[in-house]
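Troubleshooting: if your tokenizer reports a length mismatch, compare against these two reference records.
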Amino acid sequence: MMTDMFSMGVPLLEKVARALVVYCFLLVAFRFAGKRLLAQLNPFDLVLILILSNAVQNAIIGNDNSVVGGIVGAAVLLLANGAMVRLLYNYPRLEMLVEGGETKLMDQGRVVDDALRRELMTMLELTTAAHKQGVDSLAEVKTVAIEPGGAIWFERGTPLPEELRHRELLERLDRLEARFSPDARG
């Protein structure tokens, strides 16, 4: 029993090569799948990721169900990911090639329909993302962009009344402080 648990059924070099090939394949596949998959994980995307992990499991472990084989496969994936992160950090141009750039979904208050189509996002998904970030309506938004990692950011076109009031109060406090500070009384 212990022998089966710790002796690998696949040579170590093959195990490493399998894990690296699957890792590279998934990097490329996710790059072409688009940022939306990362940004708006819906039930279909979750099912896809779960099935993908099961589908590539055998490609990584091969004919090996040993504990050591599983640990080696996991370690290779973690090391490959760490190396990729360091590589992308040190070479920003490569990062742009691998991850892509941000995509504007709204510009100057107008929805960029082509960008939404490219990212396979619906208006409902865009509106839902806005609501999650405290934006009541897309009418208050000037710019929306989806970043390479899938994060969506919103820039309001006009400040909310609360923000305007807050700014006004800060300006008043600054004037009072300037008026009553020891330096001002000279």
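Reference record two:
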Amino acid sequence: MRILAIETSCDDTAVALLEGCSAIAERVYSQEVHSKHGGVVPELASRSHMKILPGLVSDVLRAGEMDSLEGIDVFAATAGPGLTGSLLVGLAWSKAAAWAAAKRFLGINHLAAHIYIHYGLKRQVVFPAVALLVSGGHTSLFRMNSWQEILLLGSTRDDAAGEAFDKTAKLVGLGYPGGAALDIAADGGNPEKYPLPSPMPDPSLPEFSFSGLKTAAKQLWEKGADRSDLAASFRRTVVDLLVSKLMYQCELLGANSVLAAGGVIANSLLRKELRWECSARNLELFLPDREHSTDNALMVGRAAAAILERNPEAFSPISCNAFARWSGRSLSPIGCP
């Protein structure tokens, strides 16, 4: 079954063509216009999606040796959570294409899609598992009893870890988005130089807070802190919080596997610590490559493929609308049932 998947939840335009869970072709366009504004400008993001998406679809079809949309069986797009204007571009295009081709459409939950980047691999997840989803907009822990039962354990109470990295990077002059630049700067610094507070440090509490940590970093910077040492101290504090809470839940729940997902998983120290801790505890670690840690359409396509494997006749209504936030305790890949 061929799936054309589209992701436009924020400022990356992504398209993927899949046969089942396997990628035939994929493309991602990262918008650079936001860097000079110091953050994502929603209006600019949605306008860029409108401009870029049609050409990106054409590129993917050509790469997949398809000359039309007639060979697509199912169209899938992120329905939310995300920026409403951006989401609407991908949704509207996918629904219109599905309607014109008389094919089915699936609206996909963005959070579940990040986790489903690990679906359909040769190496199977052994349940129960714990998933860490950490990105620019979300920081959450989930218990996974199966692919059909993903239960929220806890989330951030304020900023997401990725947002904290980006804003701190901007603060110390590394630009926006600066999470990757801060990671590089931290490699040359001393993580013990500046003891930073660890908000909500109790590992038994599966929730996070990063706003106070940002404030502490800001105060140190204003007092003349060294950039690399501050970056290293900040990175170490965030990674310790993420990993300690994740490992506690793994022990508490008797997990066999750990699934890591989201843009912050590209952080080099976090990847290193996850490998170390999971190896020490004999946990199977599922770590996406850096390319598929950030927003991409392959994860949307795999979430759609999983839905279709369970119910080959599944579809979302054309009335499916974008949603900015997700709330609840049970996470499903289908965003518009």
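Descriptive notes for reference record two:
- The radius of gyration is 20 Å.
- The chain has a mean pLDDT of 95.
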